[in-house]
Design goal:
There is one protein chain. The protein has 343 residues and is an alpha/beta fold. The protein is built from eleven helices and twelve strands. The protein has helices at 3-15, 18-25, 29-43, 59-86, 98-101, 105-115, 128-137, 182-185, 240-246, 261-269, 316-330, and strands at residues 48-49, 56-57, 92-96, 121-125, 142-145, 154-169, 179-180, 189-192, 254-257, 275-278, 289-294, 300-308. The strands form three sheets. Strands 3, 4, 5, 6, 7, 10, 11 and 12 form an eight-stranded mixed beta sheet that branches. A two-stranded antiparallel sheet has the order 1-2. The chain has a two-stranded parallel sheet with strand order 8-9. Strand 8 (189-192), helix 9 (240-246) and strand 9 (254-257) form a beta-alpha-beta unit. This is DNA-binding transcriptional LysR family regulator. Residues 202-234 are annotated as: Disordered.
Amino acid sequence: MDLKQLNAFIAIADLRSFSAAATKTGLSQPTLSRLLKQLETDMGVELVDRYHRPLHLTEAGVFFYDKISAILTEIDTVTSMTQRLSAPSAALNIGFVPSVLYGLLPEVIAKLKQSNPDIEVNLKDISSYQQIEALKTGEIDIGFGRFAHQDPWIQQILLRHERYMVALPKAHALAHIDEQRLIDLANNRLILYHQTHLPISTTAQPTNPSIRNIAANDKSSSRHKQSSNDQPSLEPVTEPLLHLFAQYGISPFMTTTVSDLQVALGLVAAGEGITLVPASLKTVRTEQIVYRRLLHENATSPIYLHTLKDFVHPKIPDLLSAIYQVYERRGITYRKQSFTSQR
């Protein structure tokens, strides 16, 4: 078997159609059919049931597809990394989540350019989850994200923890209280906006069993309370804001899930609910929104920096140096770290 045969099989398996696979690969249908037949002959196994429309994979084909897809992805990653090693880009391509842009990132980039006048920096708004694939494909060289990742190709360091603040409409009954408690916020509609969830295996247990758990309904807009006879759910709470509430045995009365942070703050400004945001966003929409500190010490959002293990862009040490210089100027506590190449 060879890569042409494998890629032909993957295209056919993905699209369940020879004609669609031909369009995607740029190969003719007879060529695709021949490559698939050669692969099946070499293996002595039928992978595709051709007598159904759309095409079906055989049981052996499903198993082979699952395993070979991961291998081909690794081959593509290794190929991309090898090309970058032989001819590294002069530009530094940085991925970031929007909440980081409202914080110190602009100041960090300004500091980096001050010490490296000739550096070309490209910034890309991309979610924490998508940054991992973007690093592998070479779309970005480094990423600022809010979530820890476990990936064999990626290394990351924790830069710091940023406090969460409560974003409330100015007319809200709690808006005048400078320091808030989660239990006092539980009867509000909580607006959720994270597109990446926490990799948590078990739900945090309530720290105060006397607190009545209230069921959250995140899209239907109907309200319902959990009966006193119901047991708390044992399903993992992986949405970051709900997880924070769950650590104190609390579920918000109602939730609404939106596509991003800006939409969430727009709904808060319109008086449609409240949300929790990193402190760096406390200057956004201040005409309609007030931001109040949370009393809870663990109410923080981490900021991670991640890059590839086997290829560290030559300008990344300069970026880290700029970050730490900004932290020192701002009086932010940090632990100095560095990336290391695994080659």
